[in-house]
Amino acid sequence: MSVSNKFKIIVGVILCSVIVTTFTVREICRDWLLDSNREQAENQLLTYVVDIRRVLASYKYLPYLITEQKNVITVLTDPKASLTPIQQTLTQFDKAANTKGWYLLKPDGSLLVSSRHNTNWDTYKAQNITMNLRGPNGERDNDRGVLTSSYIANGSANYYLSLPINHQGKLIGIAVIEVDLTALSEPWLAENDFILISNAQNKFFLSSHPQISATEINSLGTTGITTHQLSNNANIYNWTIASRDYQVQQVQLDDLQWHIYYLTPLNDLYRKVNVASFISAILMSLLLSVLLYRYERKQKLYSHAALKQMIAGTNVGLVLLNNDRSISYINPTAMRYFGLNNDDLDKNEQHKKGDKSGKSGKLHASQLLTQHQDNEAVVTQLNDLLITPTFTGIEVFAHNHHGYDFPALLSITPLAWSQSRGSLMTFVDISKRKRAEHALSQANEQLETRVQETTAKLYAAQEELVLSSKMAALGRMSSAINHELNQPLTGIRTLLSSNLLFLDQGNTKVLRSNMALIDKLVKRMLSMTAQLKVFAFNRPERLIATSMTDVLSEVFTLQQAKLANIAITVDIPDSLPQVLAEPHRLHQVFSNLISNAAAALQKTSQPTLMISANRVKDRVHIKVIDNGAGVDDEALTHLFEPFYTSKKIGEGLGLGLAITANIMRDMQGEIFAHNNQQQAGMTFTLTLKADDNK
User: Fold this and answer.
1) At CA 460, angle to CA 455 and CA 462, rounded to 5?
2) How far apart are CA 514 and CA 502, in angstroms?
3) What is the predicted pLDDT for the residue at 626?
């Protein structure tokens, strides 16, 4: 036999063996896959049945929500009762439960009220609902609890939950919930499973396939289902729909009279069988698996080497840890940080390889940190092998094996490399930053000390200025008092000297005249000293509701002579509340301001004085406006200072406005002054709290 014939025979035998093996493997693989697919489909079908039961059961309590409404008995028993509240309640329940409708029926099944407007409630629906109220022999049973009913209309399923409503032993109505069965198919669509549901008449009403509807399945019918027996005598049901083969599993729900079909596409299964049939493909797969394994192994080793190379080239300290927190690798920067050398790493490698002589040289992650209180949490997690430590940028104290410690920023991240898992520790030496922070802290302390010293000097200078201001005010006061008191004292002295002469002469008429002048001069001095006593007044203990108009009327009456030639306007609304003040002291404030205004209006051709008031939030603003001469800007800044006056010596002490400002502060108010912009004169603004108790 020639070599070519032997080759042909070998090739033939090989081909025959391949064909036989291929056929055998094909049959075994197909039967095994079909049987496995059948078992899996049965389990999945049971799961979906449980899901269907669970979803339908979740709606079973809903009819009780209708019966628990307070006005449902009234609506069913009283024809004149309003249906609007119960309709609104049903509408809210319908939206919340995501159902298709909530209904309240009369005992005969006719619609009383619905959650949806323009509801098409027909007799067919009513018959399906009321039919459930009858027992097997046709007798009515009103105590059967929640009942279910379903039927097909217009190619879709109608599923109802109904509950009889009894009152005093009599059926007065029926609570009905219409459930949207599309809620059943939503999870099936997410799982890409093909499920069909048909009713007792074998009409399909629900399909989970996105392109094949239940109506199309009804046109095909179930006559296309064929049976195939496997080698283990198990029966497999196949169904061809739209040129695609499906394996079918079905189950019947007796209480609902539903048939549930679970269809598994077989195209992928056939493809697997074809792939498994070719021995060459199997061998190639094995070969590719071996090559792929070697390639992956090489890539992992390369990635580990690349990782070490990358770690070695960084300018921060990097340390690779094993699962037991021992050091797997440390880069040169970290070695410099911790004062380690290659001998320390060699001992660590010997320990990892099982060399007992290197056991004493094992490096643990916690050895890189000092026994410092700030490191306690990190060291605890590094020593606990049951947890995976994870830190990001925390400050620790690291230990240099040459005998000193240094501050560092530590980060620990879980990491996987090659066939191992562990962690990556990152150290950044922050000694320079800490020194800079310390220097900055010292600079801040020095700056704070200087600021305190400067502040103390400023306070001392301020006290000197205040003292100087007080001395200046005291000087002005002394000058004014000296002049104001010296004049009447000189007059009194002169009059007393004259009285001695007139007494000797017996001229009593002149004596009486001189005594009257002396009394007048004494009263003048008492008036001056009375103004000084005002500064010693105590703040009132309690402010009372005070009428501004009453106080102003008294002031106008007392100063009628001064105001004779002045046009006065008062604009205080009747709706304005009273103010919280002390009536006597408020009288003094108005008297001082109006007296000053009258003095300022003496040389004005058409003198006017306007007093107005308005409310701003919880305060009342009172304005006193005149068109007099006003004051200059320099005098305006010192207007409320005691003993400061623009009048000539002898015309006043300059205490009127100072006393007014003190009184306003005592009454928890304020006073402001400014020259008028559009006209001559000044405006004084008073603010006091409004009395809202009335």
Assistant:
1) 90
2) 10
3) 92
Say yes or no to pLDDT of 178 above 70.
Answer: yes
Quote the CA–CA distance of 166 and 172 in Å, as a whole number: 6
Say which CATH number the domain at 681 has.
3.30.565.10
Please identify, among 147, 165, 180, the residue that sits at the C-terminal boundary of a domain: 180
Cα dihedral 26, 31, 36, 42 sign: positive
The pLDDT tens digits for 436-452 are: 888 888 888 888 888 88
| Cβ atoms < 10 Å from Cβ of 369 | 22
Amino acid at 496: L
204 within some domain: no
Last residue of a domain, one of 122, 154, 180: 180
Task: Report angle CA 436, 439, 441 to the nearest 5 degrees.
Answer: 110
Which residue would you say has higher pLDDT here, 608 or 358? Answer: 608
- 184 Cβ partners below 8 Å, 6+ apart? 51, 52, 55, 197, 206
Domain count, the chain: 4
Q: Residue 123 sits in which domain range?
A: 59-180
Evaluate whether 375 touches 396 at the Cβ level (below 8 Å).
Answer: yes
Cβ count near 217 (within 10 Å): 22
Looking at every residue in the chain, the average pLDDT score rounds to 78
Interaxial angle between packed helices 279-312 and 3-58, expressed in degrees from 0 to 180 and rounded to the nearest 10 = 70
d(CA 592, CA 372): 76
520 and 552 in a single domain? The answer is no
Q: What's the pLDDT band for 660 if we cut at 50, 70, 90?
A: confident
- What tokens appear for 502 in the block? 């007139």
Angle between helices 548-558 and 583-600 (to 10 degrees): 50
C-alpha 510 chain-centroid distance: 93
Q: What is the pLDDT of residues 513-564, one digit of tens each?
A: 888 878 877 776 766 565 555 544 555 667 899 999 999 998 888 788 888 8
Residue appearing with tokens 């009321």: 130
**Confidence class for position 573, pLDDT limits 50, 70, 90:** very high
The yes-or-no verdict on residue 356 having pLDDT over 50 is no
How far is C-alpha 137 from the geometric centre of its chain's CA atoms? 63
In the chain, the largest separation of any two C-alpha atoms, in whole Å, equals 191
Is 609 contained in some domain?
yes
Pairing relation of β-strands 147-153 and 156-167? antiparallel
d(CA 615, CA 655): 29
User: Considering the domain boundaries, does residue 447 fall inside one?
Assistant: yes
Residue 307: CA atoms inside 13 Å, Cβ hemisphere, count? 17
Residue 3 pLDDT class (50, 70, 90 cuts): very low
